[in-house]
Amino acid sequence: MTRRFLQPEHQARYSEARLDAVRAIARLAREEDAAFVLACGDVFDSNHVDRQVIARALDAMRAFEVPLLILPGNHDPLDAASVYRSRAFTERAPDAVTVIADAMPVAIGGLEVVGAPWNARRPGMDPSAEVIAALEPGPRRVLAAHGVVDVLSPDADDPEAIAMGGLTAALDDGRVSYVALGDRHSATEVGGDPRVRYPGTPVAADYGEVDPGNVLVVDIDAEGVRATAHRVGEWTFVRREVRLAGAGDVDALDADLAALPDKARTVVRLDLIGALTPAEDARLNAMLADQADLFAALTRSERGSDLAVVAHDDDLDALGLSGYAQSAAEEIAAIAAGDGPDHEAARDALRLLYRLARHDA
Fold first, then answer.
1. Are residues 305 and 188 in the same domain?
2. pLDDT recorded at residue 320
3. Containing structural domain, residue 99
């Protein structure tokens, strides 16, 4: 997947980071002596990705020395136009790669893996429900599923949500030993049950994700299930709400941004609230421009920000204006200080006026 707000240089590095994560998972599998690797959906962001994206992804997958099982998800469903049916994929796929195309059990590593692939982007039902219903108690078994579990869904009537009750019943009666889930970007143990887990996205993809950048190494034996997180991703998305009420707060924000590590792989979005004078606002903008040169991306949120520019009489006097210009500045300042429909435009105008006046001086 892409993040179009990144500069071209960082966009390329972000794309490469995803391929690096694939190789890192292959190394981890080798180091941990894993029997196989399971990717539960959305390996590709779309069924319509470029041939080069497919080719580079498959080249990275050649690093796997153990089987790599891929479950189609809602972004890359196994429909007629599936990326997994394309010649670009089938002619290049390494021998280690197997796409889970149906619910037939795959015997591997002393276990059975049973998948519930998505055959459409919106199937209108939970693909795992029929799979679970058809299972009988038997060998240790991993269910590979994709989608939101109902106890985590904001939509109680979502027909595609996975029923936690069905998962728990299958786990308790021995039909399933572990449920490996995809779709949720945050690492999540569902319903407090360590047998039902999302590992989260291997590379951070957005703000608000909880502990992204990991994969899970899962041990399943007679004693039960143990899952250990291992970090493979290096990118970080940071969103902060910052209240500004003067020059000291601007300096504090500058220091906080300077302290963030690994800036070239860090994406920052700021929600700025409060009020500054024109001079303080100019200092803020200059500081953010300097800091933006260091980060993969540094942006100000439009929705989450409410930063007023308030000009007092001495601020306007410092601009050295007179006559009509002085009167216009006072009128703009009054509108900017209010909450009317034009206050945002007035704030922008006041910023521009301050910059132009200071430049002329």
1. no
2. 64
3. 8-231
**What angle in degrees, to the nearest 10, is found between the helix axes of 278-292 and 343-360?**
80
- pLDDT for 316: 62
Of 231, 262, 290, the residue at which a domain comes to its end is 231
Residues in the chain: 361
Q: Are residues 285 and 257 in the same domain?
A: yes
Question: Quick one: 149 and 258 in the same domain?
Answer: no
Q: Are residues 217 and 260 in the same domain?
A: no
Q: What is the CATH number of the domain that holds 93?
A: 3.60.21.10
Contact 10, 297 (CB under 8 A): yes
| Helix intervals (H) in 163-211 | 164-172
- Please name every residue paired with 307 in a beta bridge, in sequence order, or none if there are none: 274
Collapsed DSSP state (helix, strand, coil) of residue 69: strand
Token code pair at residue 59: 């080249």
Determine, yes or no, domain membership for 290. Answer: yes
d(CA 347, CA 306): 11
Whole-angstrom Cα distance, residue 104 to residue 134? 11
Sign of the Cα torsion 196, 201, 202, 208 reads negative
Tokens 């990326």: give the residue: 83
Number of domains in the chain: 2
For residues 203 and 273, state if they share a domain. Answer: no
- Spell out, as residue ranges, where the chain has pLDDT lower than 50: 361
Strand residues in the chain grouped as ranges (E): 37-40, 68-71, 97-99, 106-108, 111-115, 141-146, 178-182, 188-189, 196-198, 214-221, 224-231, 236-244, 266-276, 297-300, 306-309
Answer whether 57's CB lies under 8 Å from 203's CB.
no
Question: Radius of gyration of the chain from Cα atoms?
Answer: 26
2 in any annotated domain: no
Is residue 228 within 8 A of residue 199, CB to CB? The reply is no
Looking at this protein, which amino acid is placed at residue 165? G
Let me know if residue 284 belongs to a domain.
yes
What the block records as the tokens of 345 is 């435009």
What pLDDT was estimated at residue 157? 87
pLDDT at 314: 64
Rounded alpha-carbon distances, angstroms, from residue 180 to 64, 232, 271:
20, 18, 35
Strand partners, 270: 240, 300
